[in-house]
């Protein structure tokens, strides 16, 4: 089963990269001169402004984690950076939550698992909800909105259990969790409703920040796009399972599929998407490598 999943993830990455290459070739954007021109004409000031929003994006994630896990801000920041590094190198970024939880004392790890899952689900609800509102085709809009509402209701009234989640992991990962993440008796594990509602608020604000970053990056490369276009890129990207390297290739393929750039704009769309990926995922992941621990850190 593990080998099948690895092959599936590799297949998705190869398919995404093949789609990008096919789109670039079909749109006449294969010439290296077009890429050099796109890089030369990129607005450095706008890209700098986009990069300056990264601490805001990261700070909102730290706020989400700190409030729900009970960690003070400095430790929560290191936890999130460790998660960024581990998530960058793990399928579907599952390593993000595992690395955060690994840094908690045993009595808080049950709560940490619930905090991590709840934070991810809250962000997913926002992505689905806004993506559904942005969809122009009713055949897509209403199913997506219905799914978002169903997940929202479940999220508000159901708390995930760490042991049940463990049983759904691949056997090799279960063994790793058992060896590294001994979970003690839960202490205040259940997240109160007010915290779940707060998670939705922080997730919505974070969604606004990284959407603004993407719009600025597209503007820096002279690509015309609105929030509806970006919301659809996030929706498509969220629907595709990913391998390691933090959605590398899948996000760019999603952008090309949604934005359908005309000819010379294709390299600019890819460069703008890579810029946001590098600032929001690659940079924090690199910083967080030194924060990965498999024991309690205080």
**Rg (CA only):** 20 Å
* Number of H- or I-type helical stretches: 14
Q: List low-confidence stretches.
A: none
Structural class, by secondary structure, is: mainly alpha
Total of domains: 1
Strand content: under 5%
SSE sequence, one letter per element? HHHHHHHHHHHHHH
What's the end-to-end separation, in Å? Answer: 37 Å
- Taken from the alpha-carbon principal axes, the silhouette is globular
Q: How many strands in all?
A: 0
The helix fraction, in percent, is over 70%
Please tell me the overall pLDDT.
80
Main sheet, how many strands, which sense, barrel?
A: none
Sum this structure up briefly.
The chain has 298 residues and is an all-alpha fold. The protein is built from 14 helices and no strands. The chain has one domain (2-291).
Descriptive account of the structure:
The protein has one domain (2-291). By secondary structure, the protein is mainly α. The protein is globular. Helices cover 76% and strands 0% of the residues.
